[in-house]
Amino acid sequence: MINLTLRQLRYFDALARHGHFGRAAESCSISQPALSMQIKELEEALGGLLLERSARQVALTRFGEELAQRVRDILRSVDELGDFARASQDRFAGRLRIGMIPTIAPYLLPKITKNLTRMHPELDIRVRETMTPRLIQELVEGRLDTAIVALPVSEPSLTEVALFEEKFLLVRPGADEGTPVPSREMMREMRLLLLEEGHCFRDQALSFCNMQSAPPREMLDANSLSTLVQMVSAGIGVTLIPEMAVPVETRSASVSLARFRDPEPSRTIGMVWRKTSPLARQLLQISEVVCLSAGKVRVRQSVRSQKA
Fold first, then answer.
1. To bridge 211 with a disulfide, which of 7, 155, 206, 287 should be the other Cys (CB 3.0-4.6 Å)?
2. What positions does the domain HTH lysR-type occupy (predicted)?
């Protein structure tokens, strides 16, 4: 009989994800020698090599690659057992892992955390901020409980819950205050400042302007809305930002704000979680807290499970 421990499986999963003993050990809060010993014991128990070791990094063997996916499934099932136990309790307590995209987290996170802590003081809230594809991957793999993103994500294994609609505003240099608001056709002729590739907000801005991509000579990328607004303040171009970002990002910038004519560009903010999550009822309650924190009215017909 093969004797394996959940600790060994979690360490192997971390190593498979990071591809580096040092980073994997740090993520597991243990020393690198201790991690190496556990992986070696796992290999001995299974009777096969899991890794190809080199001085700079590690690579999974074919056996290791096949095992990595099975280990992720096992760990996800184990975590869901814990979620099932928590879901059966009257109170909402324990670990809650929430993911948010960068164009939401700085503006909603403080209010969401404050309200959740007040309403559910026994919650241990852990937040992960990164772009949508990474959040969806971690959610599917069971490393997040839910994520707050712009919909749709169209992942068959997830339930999408639409929360509220948010408009985009045009940000121009302060000297443009009071001048006519350009149409979407006119926007294509302007120097449009965008977030870098990978941000869904970039794609939404381009879609509004009926552009597949911005002309290279006119495009200047940034990795945050704050940088975009400061670039506009310097007279470099114009940009779009979501409503929730306006109070934070424009308070110290010499810019002017304008709304577009109808139909205004917008996005749908929502929550997603695994269809199999035992915490679905609690997460639906949290979605109400998100709307409360944003000061928004919830959209109708908001819950939609993706078809497999």
1. 206
2. 4-61
CA distance 11 to 18: 11
Q: Classify residue 108 as exposed, middle or buried by CB count within 10 Å of its CB (0-12, 13-18, 19+).
A: middle
Most confident of 69-73, 93-97, 291-295: 291-295
The band of 219, judged by pLDDT with boundaries at 50, 70 and 90, is: low
Q: Are 201 and 242 in contact (CB under 8 A)?
A: yes
Q: How far is CA 180 from CA 128, 172, 235, 259, in A?
A: 40, 11, 17, 11
Cα 158 to Cα 276: distance, rounded to the nearest angstrom: 8
For the whole model, what pTM was predicted? 0.74
When pLDDT is averaged across residues 3-29 and rounded to a whole number, the result is 86
Residues 36 and 43 sit within 8 Å (Cβ to Cβ): no
- Characterise 210 by phi-psi region: left (phi > 0), alpha (psi -120 to 50), beta (else): left
CB 158 within 8 A of CB 136: yes
**Taking all residues of the chain, what is their mean pLDDT, rounded to a whole number?**
86
Q: Count CB atoms within 10 A of the CB of residue 120.
A: 18
SS (H, E, C) the chain: CCCCCHHHHHHHHHHHHHCCHHHHHHHHCCCHHHHHHHHHHHHHHHCCCCEEECCCCEEECHHHHHHHHHHHHHHHHHHHHHHHHHHCCCCCCEEEEEEECCCCHHHHHHHHHHHHHHHCCCEEEEEEECCHHHHHHHHHCCCCCEEEEEECCCCCCEEEEEEEEEEEEEEEEHHHCCCCCCCHHHHCCCCEEEECCCCHHHHHHHHHCCCCCCCHHHCEEECCHHHHHHHHHCCCCEEEEEHHHHHHHCCCCCEEEECCCCCCCEEEEEEEEECCCCCHHHHHHHHHHHHHHHCCCCCCCCEEECCC
